[in-house]
Structures are given as C-alpha cells and as structure tokens.
Amino acid sequence: EGGFVQGLGWVALEELKYGDPDHTWIKPGTLFTQGPGTYKIPTANDIPLEFNVTLLHNAPNPRAVASSKAVGEPPFLLANSVFFAIKDAVCAAREGNGLDTDITMDSPATPERVRMACGGPISDVFYDSTNAPAYRAKLTC
C-alpha cells in the first residue's frame, strides 16, 4: 500500500516549484517546495476508500535478499494507472465541453492542472479554451 500511495503522490500531488519570473517571491533558481509545509505529500485523505491489496503467498524467492519479492518499484509504478485514469477523465470532460480530446498532460496531474485542462465555463474565466489549444500548465521545474 505504501509504495502505491507514494506513487500516487508522485503522479498527482507532488509539484516542484522553483523561483523564476512568474514566482517573484522565491529567489531565482531556489527550490520553494522543500518540506511538508510547502510540498503536498499524500495523506490518509488521499487514499481511496476501497483499496484492495493482496500479497503473494507460498512463492519463495531463494535468489533474492531475504527472499524479497521486489516490493518497492512495482507498486510505486503501478500508480501510473492513476495518472492515465485522470487523463481519461479530463478527456471525457473536454469532450462533454465540446473541446479537443487530443491533449498533452504533464505530470503531476495536480487538482489545479486537472481543473484547467477540463476546460468549460469555470476554466474559461482564466483561460479561453474555445479559441486556443488545450491548456498546458507551465512546468515549474
């Protein structure tokens, strides 16, 4: 569970912000999101209500250290499924708003980026999605 939730944070929450002309309150080139006070990490509220996990039983691995079964990277990378599910949902919202669904979506898919990418009347207050290509948030790193 921990590896998956860490991956969830990686693809949907954790955004690095550096000082640049658009972030004048941060010294240029300085990483602003250095700790939990400025860096969004997954919490108990970010875990799905239904989160079913099973462990591999009766499958010894004598060639690995302490019979481990590669418990780090596979669940971490499985969270990529979250990113692509978000992208599919954004494309469905764009289709419902009569917008092009062929979009580039950068990771992390933060709530702000997702909202803007969906287009429609709420996003149009900030960005005219009807007369421009799909919104693509400025990468901050």
Tell me what you see in this structure:
With 141 residues, the protein is mainly α. The protein has helices at 2-12, 73-78, 80-96, 111-118, 121-124. α3 packs parallel to α4. The mean pLDDT is 80.
Per-chain topology:
Blueprint: H1 2-12, H2 73-78, H3 80-96, H4 111-118, H5 121-124
Strand percent estimate: under 5%
Radius of gyration: 19 Å
Share of helix, binned: 25-40%
- Name the structural class: mainly alpha
**How many angstroms separate the termini?**
28 Å
Main sheet, how many strands, which sense, barrel?
Answer: none
Tally of helical segments? 5
Overall spatial form: globular
The residue ranges in which pLDDT falls below 50 over 5 or more consecutive positions are: none
Mean pLDDT: 80
Q: How is the quaternary structure best described?
A: single chain
Total strands: the figure is: 0
Order of helices and strands: HHHHH
